[in-house]
Write a structure and sequence with these properties.
202 residues, alpha+beta, 9-stranded mixed β-sheet, two-stranded antiparallel sheet
Length: 202
């Protein structure tokens, strides 16, 4: 009996949902999404409960190693809403590297990255919270090639801004696009690896 072919998806993980199908805690799960995922589907990488956006799902267990354990780093882009206005000096600090605390208690200077101030994208949903309109905020677009635990949140905290909303919008050429929270898109295997810029996957 032949093994069924692997399947490949990406979703818009909503706010207040963990990146897994099973949990002992009372939290939103990937299984709550209105889609019939095949047996063996699992998430590649993580987005924490309070983050949203692009999350990869597949039945292929090799993808984690190919994407996150390769010698070639893969770029991930985040749309970040922070409290108050970000100064040019703080923006430059984000670009050149800031010191954050990593798992285990040590300090880490982040690798230089792309960071810019942007307008709130048209068509973006309001999200889970309503923020006071009398308190200014800034939208940032940050692209990283490394992924320490809660790195983006820690980076903006290092320049004295509170992260209010965090949305991963792309991994390499795989983009969230117009997908809405809870939305699912399935890709053919070759297209999946092409968008992630993974070679030698066969």
């Amino acid at each position: 009996m032949s093994t069924p072919p692997h399947r490949y998806f990406y979703i818009y993980k909503p706010f207040n949902m963990v990146s897994q199908f099973i949990s002992p805690d009372k939290v939103g799960l990937l299984g709550d999404i209105d889609f019939d995922f095949p047996e063996g589907t699992h998430a590649i990488g993580r987005l924490d409960n309070h983050s949203e956006g692009l999350l990869i799902l597949t039945t292929n267990k090799k993808v984690t190693r190919l994407l996150f354990e390769s010698k070639v780093p893969h770029k991930r882009t985040y749309l970040v809403q922070v409290r108050n206005e970000v100064s040019p000096e703080s923006l430059e600090a984000l670009r050149t590297g800031v010191t954050i605390r990593v798992k285990g208690g040590g300090d880490w200077v982040t690798t230089p990255c792309d960071a810019e101030i942007v307008e709130m994208p048209a068509g973006l949903s309001e999200g889970a919270f309503t923020f006071r309109k009398d308190i200014p905020h800034t939208w940032l677009l940050i692209t990283l090639s490394e992924g320490k635990f809660h790195q983006v949140r820690k980076m903006v905290k290092a320049v004295r801004h509170r992260c209010q909303r965090l949305i991963r919008i792309s991994i390499e050429d795989m983009e969230l696009g117009t997908l809405k929270p809870g939305g699912v898109k399935e890709l053919e295997e070759e297209e999946f690896f092409r968008q992630l810029k993974i070679e030698n996957w066969i």
